[in-house]
């Protein structure tokens, strides 16, 4: 599969399909089983995406996604290499946070921290967020046509002439993983640890840091869904940015709550 060689290749025919057989239960299971076939995963493509997400260049990631769809007729990734790499990084940062925590360090505490980060925060919370966004986009943001046949009324997603279908769940998971890596993992799991002494001194700086991180999460999410044909009003996915900024401002102004100190319990 082509990975970074996308420049000058975007003129390929555009096929408007929002999901394939991988949106079925068997397709999702096959995708997950690929996590145990490390030699068959495209690590270069995953690292390429992570690099641009980390350095605030998510538009390049979604240009690669568009090229991937044009050549393979699917929007989601071929394999879970991105999530496997992210899980390893989450485990590594969990160990670093546990080692740097005050008090005695025990093996049980380290194992518990790794399990919480990988299983709960990455897999469980990720599945919940991806499912929630998948539902919201398919229910309210995808262009729909109302059809009447034999006296019954049903809804069809997208324009029938373009073959548009509901957004596949695996693509929703990809979008969440992209947004989580760029908007949560890098600023709050990696950079926050060395910056914690500075963030704890100022509620304004700390809350601004969290607001910026979550806003970047929303921005990457918007880019992912705005890319899809048939998705209308994707700009509503940017609305939480205003809410996050307002909450961060009120917490610092009214109650002097320092999010870095409160969330990390340090």
UniProtKB/TrEMBL annotation:
InterPro entries: UNC-50 (IPR007881). It comes from the Eukaryota. It comes from Cyanidium caldarium. The lineage of its organism: Eukaryota, Rhodophyta, Bangiophyceae, Cyanidiales, Cyanidiaceae. It is a multi-pass membrane protein. Pfam families: UNC-50 (PF05216). It is found in: Membrane. Belongs to the unc-50 family. Signal peptide: none annotated. The keyword Transmembrane applies. The keyword Transmembrane applies. Keywords: Membrane, Transmembrane, Transmembrane helix. GO terms for cellular component: Golgi membrane. The chain crosses the membrane at residues 81-111, 118-137, 169-191, 203-225, 237-260. Its main location: membrane. This is Integral membrane protein.
